[in-house]
Amino acid sequence: MHLVEATDEQKVQRDVLTYSEWGKLLTLEEYLSREQRLRTHPWARSDMRTWLLCDTDGSVLASCETFRTHSFLRTPTGPLVPGDSFAIASVFTEERLRGRGYATQLMDLLAARLERQPRAHAALLFSDVGPRIYARSGYQELPAWNWHLSPIPGDPNERVNLLPPEDDIGRALERLRYPDSPFFFWPTPAQLDWHLERGRIYVEKLGCTLPSSLGATTGASTILWGLASRNAELLVLMLDARSPDEAHALLGAARREAHRSGLSRVVLWEEPTHAPLLSSLEGATRVARDGSLPMVRPLRPDLPLAPLLPVPRGLWV
Ligand SMILES: CC(C)(COP(=O)(O)OP(=O)(O)OC[C@H]1O[C@@H](n2cnc3c(N)ncnc32)[C@H](O)[C@@H]1OP(=O)(O)O)[C@@H](O)C(=O)NCCC(=O)NCCS
């Protein structure tokens, strides 16, 4: 068995097979067109690869995708060392081939390949099938809690400055502080826009409207959000709140934006620094995340993996 990069034709062949798993709400034709559209997005064009585990006769046994993302190592004296990390998505084995270790073999060969990349830091994935299968390939699970907030009527502009949709995501992202942890992932502006592209695809199916803002700021605090999945929810992609008061103001704006856009709730992925900011937030519930369990595998032996490594929703693939 060996690992190869898929050709464009092979990618479409895999799309036809994966439709039954990931095509909910869409016809096959719409799913194929969604995949094509997402692959032509600037982030995917520059940083996405599709990988195939092939048998000796060339037949495909399993597949997945990688998206390169930025990450940083904090040296003991302070300076940050930038590198590349790889978010892994769409791990798939056809039903007739399951249970023979092919997905595990794919993950092992892929990690060995990624380890040879010159600036490699870590691989990151979001398991929908629990931790066990990926733990076998060296992935460690991280906490996965969500905060759910109900929409509320009112002007989203109250107490915050809303970021208009045409605003530069890069400029907004630059306002956010890097996490304190010795190692962390950090999305690019194109990466965040790729999430919004998903929302642009799904909005017609959902009976809601696209939020008319990218997020909000107040004081030095910033939140970035969007419709980014096949659920009519406002997903918080990134949140840097400098105080409980500013966190409450930003999340209040998110709740009003969700109401204005006809979305059913606001969803925030909890990061280690959020707990003290959110504990007194009314109308918010903390729930164990259903699926999308973050798991990380170092791609170099000295990578310091703290259990408190933040994984915002903006890193999901
Ligand atoms: C998950 C998947 C890729 C595994 O492929 P595979 O080639 O059968 O994987 P392996 O043979 O290497 O490992 C199989 C293990 O995965 C586990 N697994 C598969 N589906 C699972 C699920 N839905 N929940 C929990 N575990 C699951 C099996 O129980 C088995 O575990 P065990 O060996 O400890 O009993 C395949 O079932 C699949 O394509 N599923 C649909 C798409 C999907 O959910 N992909 C994962 C997204 S994170």
Automatic annotation (TrEMBL):
UniProt cross-references to InterPro entries, sorted A to Z: Acyl_CoA_acyltransferase, GNAT_dom, GNAT_LYC1-like, LAT
Top-level taxon in the UniProt lineage: Bacteria
Protein name: N-acetyltransferase
Pfam families associated with the record: Acetyltransf_1, GNAT_LYC1-like
Domain N-acetyltransferase: 1-153
Species of provenance: Archangium minus
